[in-house]
């Protein structure tokens, strides 16, 4: 009887020890999960403070992206996260350029863009083949590249930022708008510059109004266009409205019907955006997108006007790292030499 009582006491003790062990594990696991959740819960606050800037770095013009990044980083105290997008064979060179130059201090991610997503969506014939480069279409796929951020800035590589990028990021997007652009009919630059022959600022310059599909849109050909080289985008609205799918639909239609030949004033990346975002976008402060600096090498802006500009865009054929071009001194002041020695300036510029 005494032996049985002793056995029961031992069993009870073992049971208590076991229960204590289980309880300890549960409490400890709860603490670990709480700590992990605590780390995650801080992330959204950190993300709110972060300004994501997407910029492409194409093989032949990588120096452009680096100059743009340098100008942005040097003119703000904001916490910028650069998403530098390239094709697979350029990723290591992008990283090397950043890590072995004055840009080594920036916060960045190198992102691969897979051109296979464009298969069957681009017409092969073009009067300007450079417009068909895969990275021109990265702006269509922002939600596939950016997963954590609510608001994103996209910039073409041929820009220089002279203002604080925080101002651009603070652009207000109206309810239901997935993006903000600069209107081509509201260009302060045109008050300062001689008439640019052939400059397109309406839908007629981008879409072929002889095609029934375009006529059926019901958009007046005199409607003011916008420039998608600078975009402030709301990722939630973009995904909700399935913007990427809509853009792909119009790319496919163009393959079948040639709705916006690149022989027109615009490019093959601008036209589908004009259709999809028609009447559904907010406006960017005009000083945050002074463009057409690459349109005509014989046309110059006043120095005073250029000093007031927050962002300069050399859209057009005449790039500031090449010859001939205008106001290339403003661009070259931000140039970051290529550690590999591949990208070089054309110093014939006057």
Automatic annotation (TrEMBL):
GO cellular component terms listed in the entry, alphabetical order: Golgi apparatus; membrane
Places the protein is found: Membrane
> How does this protein lie in the membrane?
Single-pass type II membrane protein
Top-rank taxon: Eukaryota
Spell out the molecular function terms from Gene Ontology.
UDP-glycosyltransferase activity
Q: Per the UniProt entry, what species is this protein from, by scientific name?
A: Molossus molossus
> Quick one: signal sequence residues?
none
**Protein name (Swiss-Prot/TrEMBL):** Glycosyltransferase 8 domain-containing protein 2
Q: What's in the keyword line of the UniProt record?
A: Glycoprotein, Glycosyltransferase, Membrane, Signal-anchor, Transferase, Transmembrane, Transmembrane helix
Membrane spanning residue stretches: 6-24
List the top taxonomic levels of the source.
Eukaryota, Metazoa, Chordata, Craniata, Vertebrata
Q: Which family does it belong to?
A: Belongs to the glycosyltransferase 8 family.
Q: Which Pfam families match?
A: Glyco_transf_8 (PF01501)
């Amino acid at each position: 009887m005494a032996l049985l009582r002793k056995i029961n006491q031992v069993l009870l003790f073992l049971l208590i020890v076991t229960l204590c062990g289980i309880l300890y594990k549960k409490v400890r696991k709860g603490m670990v999960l709480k700590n992990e959740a605590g780390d995650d819960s801080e992330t959204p606050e950190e993300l709110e403070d972060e300004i994501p800037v997407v910029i492409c770095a194409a093989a032949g013009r990588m120096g452009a992206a680096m100059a743009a990044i340098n100008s942005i980083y040097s003119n703000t105290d904001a916490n910028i996260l650069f998403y530098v997008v390239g094709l697979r064979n350029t990723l290591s060179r992008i990283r090397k350029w950043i890590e072995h130059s004055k840009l080594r201090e920036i916060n960045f991610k190198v992102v691969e863009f897979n051109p296979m997503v464009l298969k069957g969506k681009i017409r092969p014939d073009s009067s300007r083949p450079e417009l068909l480069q895969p990275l021109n279409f990265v702006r269509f796929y922002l939600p596939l590249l950016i997963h954590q951020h609510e608001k994103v800035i996209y910039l073409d590589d041929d820009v220089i930022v002279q203002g604080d990028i925080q101002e651009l990021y603070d652009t207000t997007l109206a309810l239901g708008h997935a993006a903000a652009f600069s209107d081509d009919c509201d260009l302060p630059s045109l008050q300062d510059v001689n008439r640019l022959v052939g400059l397109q600022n309406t839908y007629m310059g981008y879409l072929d109004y002889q095609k029934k599909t375009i006529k059926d849109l019901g958009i007046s050909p005199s409607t003011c266009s916008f420039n998608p080289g600078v975009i402030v985008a709301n990722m939630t609205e973009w995904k909700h409205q399935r913007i990427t799918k809509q853009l792909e639909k119009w790319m496919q239609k163009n393959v079948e019907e040639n709705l916006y030949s690149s022989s027109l004033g615009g490019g093959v990346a601008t036209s589908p955006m004009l259709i999809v975002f028609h009447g559904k976008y907010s406006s960017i402060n005009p000083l945050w997108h002074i463009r057409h600096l690459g349109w005509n090498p014989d046309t110059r802006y006043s120095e005073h006007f250029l000093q007031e500009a927050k962002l300069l865009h050399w859209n057009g054929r005449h790039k500031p790292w090449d010859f001939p071009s205008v106001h290339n001194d403003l661009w070259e002041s931000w140039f970051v030499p290529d550690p590999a020695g591949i990208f070089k300036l054309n110093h014939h510029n006057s």
